[in-house]
Amino acid sequence: MQAEPLPPWLPRLAARRGPRFLQIADALQAALADGALQPGDRLPPQRQLAAQLGVDLTTVTRAYDEARRRHLLEGRGARGTYVAAPKVELDAMLDLGMNTPPPPAGVDFDDLLRQGLSQVLMRADTALLMTYHLGGGSDSDRAAAARWLAPMLGALDPREVLVCPGAQAAIAALILALTEPGAVILAEPASYPGLRAAANQLGRRIVAVAADAQGMVPELLEQACRQHQPALLYLNPTLQNPTAITMGKRRRQQLARIAQRCQLRIVEDDPYWLLADAPPAPIARGSPEQVYYISTLSKCLTPGLRVAFVRMCDPHERARFLVALRSFALMAAPVTAALATQWIFDGSADRLLQGVREEARLRHRLARDVLAGRYSGAGDGLHIWLELPGYWSPSQLARAAEREGLSVMPAEAFAMNGTAANAIRISLGSIQERARLQHGLQRLSQLLAQQPEAVRAAVV
């Protein structure tokens, strides 16, 4: 008996294209997009499709489940499975404001979690996963951290690395451990808002040092050191948040030499180094005794892994740091840290990172096409810094964008000295589907082309 032909919308599966269940779900989505399938069309029964494809029933079941998760299909009991009507978006807000890694194509997070946690539970003592850990991570967690940091810092002694519940907690603990109330912390004029929040909460003062297209200006750093006797210098030198500038090797060396002469310690917050295209070595690699290096998994893998690594050479400072950390955060959740460790050692973290990198680059190309002459990104990382036409102010545009169902971050959110650039930060990773991201960027581009008065006149 001759086998029934495959449905015309379904291409032949190929091992090199990734998991077969995702190939089937992607083919469904593509068929809906190009009209080969219409809402209300009945799909083949799962067993029939499995036989036609020569795969097991579980593969097709997972494909249909994935398609339902994407709101492509609906079950009608004994009548079978049908193409769903388009979902009406009651909440149309498109998030271009939060910096999160984009979902990589072909990565099944359900499968990653199941396998990772299964391995954790198989190898770890459950009692240890459910109790307090006061040492900045277990020996295996620190070994995994040293492995993760090796591309940035080279071979490390795991004892120099501490595991923390996110970069924000690490920054706050460093400020608390290394400075006194009223101390001055130097930073670039537009910088990570979490730094300002931590400094304000802890009674420290941020002083902004002007930056140019390469980052903080060395001569002005030296001048600020003489004027303010600062306790710390905060730098985010790779794909800087929010400007997306990557500081060159020479500028990094200049700033490090000045800080050394002025006996100024550096907090190098480097969440995007692994996402950048051939970035210079971190400042900490050349000045390990002077620099406290922070790398978080939240920005290059997933925010669900609320784990960051801090490299500190001095054992006495590490002890002070842990005391400071325990005063408000105590520890990284042991289960989360163990999962991060498992993924680093079994290669899942590297595969996920590569997927995020590839998806981020695709999204930058999309942004370059949609925003045309306004795009000024480097083609990598999670965000772009968009200079506004003179007729828009950042906060004014943010309010207008919100009325249009868009969330963006105005420059005021990043201002360290009260003076903000005429710009907004656009994050490219928060919107799950690339098509919806494109739609959001198109809406933003249309808004930018209008005068504020014209936008207000259109609101009724």
Write out key terms for the chains shown:
17 helices; 44% helix; transferase; 7-stranded mixed beta sheet; alpha/beta; 460 residues; transcription regulation; Aspartate Aminotransferase, domain 2
Set down the secondary structure blueprint.
Elements: H1 20-34, H2 46-53, H3 57-69, E1 73-75, E2 81-83, E3 94-95, H4 109-123, H5 126-129, H6 139-153, E4 161-164, H7 167-178, E5 184-187, H8 193-202, E6 205-208, E7 211-212, E8 215-216, H9 218-228, E9 232-235, H10 249-261, E10 265-269, H11 283-286, E11 291-296, E12 308-311, H12 315-326, H13 334-346, H14 348-371, E13 383-387, H15 394-403, E14 406-407, E15 409-410, E16 423-427, H16 434-448, H17 452-458
Parallel strand pairs: 3-14, 5-6, 5-9, 9-10, 10-11
Antiparallel strand pairs: 1-2, 4-12, 7-8, 11-12, 13-16, 15-16
Helix pairs in contact: 1-3, 2-3, 4-13, 6-13, 7-8, 7-12, 9-10, 14-16
Structure overview:
Pfam families: Aminotran_1_2 (PF00155), GntR (PF00392). Residues 18-86 form the HTH gntR-type domain. GO terms for molecular function: DNA binding; DNA-binding transcription factor activity; pyridoxal phosphate binding; transaminase activity. The chain starts with 19 loop residues before the first helix and ends with a helix. By secondary structure, it is α/β, with parallel strands linked by helices. The chain has helices spanning 20-34, 46-53, 57-69, 109-123, 126-129, 139-153, 167-178, 193-202, 218-228, 249-261, 283-286, 315-326, 334-346, 348-371, 394-403, 434-448, 452-458; strands at 73-75, 81-83, 94-95, 161-164, 184-187, 205-208, 211-212, 215-216, 232-235, 265-269, 291-296, 308-311, 383-387, 406-407, 409-410, 423-427. It has 17 helices and 16 strands. The chain has a 7-stranded mixed beta sheet with strand order 4-12-11-10-9-5-6, sandwiched between helices. The protein has 3 domains: 15-83, Orthogonal Bundle (Arc Repressor Mutant, subunit A), CATH 1.10.10; 94-107 and 351-458, Aspartate Aminotransferase, domain 1, CATH 3.90.1150.10; 124-346, Type I PLP-dependent aspartate aminotransferase-like (Major domain) (Aspartate Aminotransferase, domain 2). Helix 8 (193-202) links the parallel strand 5 and strand 6 (205-208). Helix 4 (109-123) crosses helix 13 (334-346), helix 9 packs parallel to helix 10 (249-261) and helix 14 (348-371) packs parallel to helix 16 (434-448).
